[in-house]
Amino acid sequence: MFLFSPCQVGAETAFKTEIRRLFPNFRLSYSRPGFLTFKVDNSTPTDDNQILEIVSDFVNRSVFARTAAVSLGKINQETTDIDTDTKTIEVEKTEAFRSLADKIWAIAEQNRIFVNRIHIFRRDVLPPGENGFEPSLTPELQMLHHILIEHSPKPKFLGVHHDNPNYPAQPGEKILNVAETDSGYYFVGVHTIPKGLPIQLCYPGGVLPITIPDNAVSRAWLKFEEGLQWSGFPIAKGDCCLDVGASPGGGSQVLLSRGAKVLGVDPAEMDPAVLNHSGFTHIRNKISQTKRSLFQNVRWIIADINVAPNYTLEVMEELATRKEIPLCGMLFTLKLFQWSLAEHLPAYIDRLQYWGFDDVRVKQLVFNRQEVTVAVQRRNV
Ligand SMILES: C[S@@+](CC[C@H](N)C(=O)[O-])C[C@H]1O[C@@H](n2cnc3c(N)ncnc32)[C@H](O)[C@@H]1O
């Protein structure tokens, strides 16, 4: 049994080290930037529950795995020289995708896999945010998705809205995964959707369908929108939130869009679009020099400060353990200024366990750059 798993380009070494520590019996099998496969054992996956448990456990425990699937096989689709005429390219692409679809369904049938939904993704070619690159479902992958559905064998698969490639997969569903690792080179696999976490398993390649709006004042909007969807924090209209390291204000915008009241702490200037929002108050100061009495109604804290992880953890620990703050949860980034800082992640995670939260999670989210996101939450406040 093999698992394949997409990750951020650049995170491969940290990911491999993590898997060696968490799953000492797994063996690295194939490695490309942004995509790794691991040999689990000598068995052949047959049982749905076994697939569900292996994949959910892997994705829940790993910081760097975006999602994962049990591999069923590989396809090397020969690419022929394509004419430069655009119309011919389209026709040839469609033809190539039809023949690919037949091969993919043949693998599924060979393994007697009956699926509810298809997830297609391509390994990233750049780190997120670099040269304008952001992971997404490209029109070409959507076209392949459409052709795969057209070519699906009978009986047809039955997931609701299975023709929408970004519709979230539902608990209990079985997903056919098609991962393009290089031009014409595909891994075919399967995973099943558990009842609760992780949400990444519900989307192709673990990429939540989020696009940055035109009025977002910073790229941080993307990672906080993804972070709030991933953490599932039930931030309600009127909730008081603290944003540490708020400037220029993308994260605050995400909170404001949920109807929250935001205190933004940052010595730097806020973007006027955020500053002039009626729900926003700027405390132009460093967090260490800001009076804690201002936080007596704070229920949620987000933070994105460009300092070493140990300093962020000190700041967050002090806020988390103050009795006078009626805190429900915190969502914050830890910046891995050097990849070698990833070696300290187990120690950082240990430290979080003592802050009194019921739910502690750490993940390198799809829209994170060289950093990871921490979500800690109290269930009964
Ligand atoms: C990556 S930017 C934050 C982006 C912002 N969260 C957004 O959504 O647009 C990091 C910010 O942390 C702020 N910062 C660094 N150290 C800080 C401290 N001790 N207290 C408050 N803010 C701090 C910096 O001034 C900078 O504006």
Supply the key terms.
single chain; 381 residues; alpha/beta; VC0802-like; Rossmann fold; 7-stranded mixed β-sheet; 9 helices; 14 strands; 28% helix; 22% strand; binds S-adenosylmethionine
The number of domains is: 2
CATH names the topology of the largest domain as VC0802-like
Assigned CATH class of the largest domain = Alpha Beta
Q: What's the CATH architecture of the largest domain?
A: 2-Layer Sandwich
- Residue share in helix: 25-40%
Derived from helix and strand composition plus strand pairing, the structural class reads: alpha/beta
**Beta-strand residue fraction:** 15-25%
Q: What overall geometry do the principal axes of the alpha carbons give?
A: globular
Low-confidence stretches: none
> Tell me about the biggest sheet?
7 strands, mixed
| Heterogens | S-adenosylmethionine
Explain what the structure shows.
The protein is α/β, with parallel strands linked by helices. It has 2 domains: 2-206, VC0802-like (2-Layer Sandwich), CATH 3.30.2130.30; 220-377, Rossmann fold (3-Layer(aba) Sandwich). The protein contains 9 helices and 14 strands. It has helices at 12-22, 48-61, 86-110, 139-150, 220-231, 250-256, 272-275, 309-320, 345-352, and strands at residues 2-6, 27-32, 35-39, 69-76, 117-122, 174-182, 185-192, 240-244, 261-265, 280-283, 300-303, 329-335, 359-363, 371-377. It has a 7-stranded mixed sheet with strand order 2-3-1-4-7-6-5. A 7-stranded mixed sheet has the order 10-9-8-11-12-14-13, sandwiched between helices. Strand 9 (261-265), helix 7 (272-275) and strand 10 form a beta-alpha-beta unit. The two termini are 43 Å apart. The mean pLDDT is 94. The structure holds S-adenosylmethionine. S-adenosylmethionine binds next to helix 6.
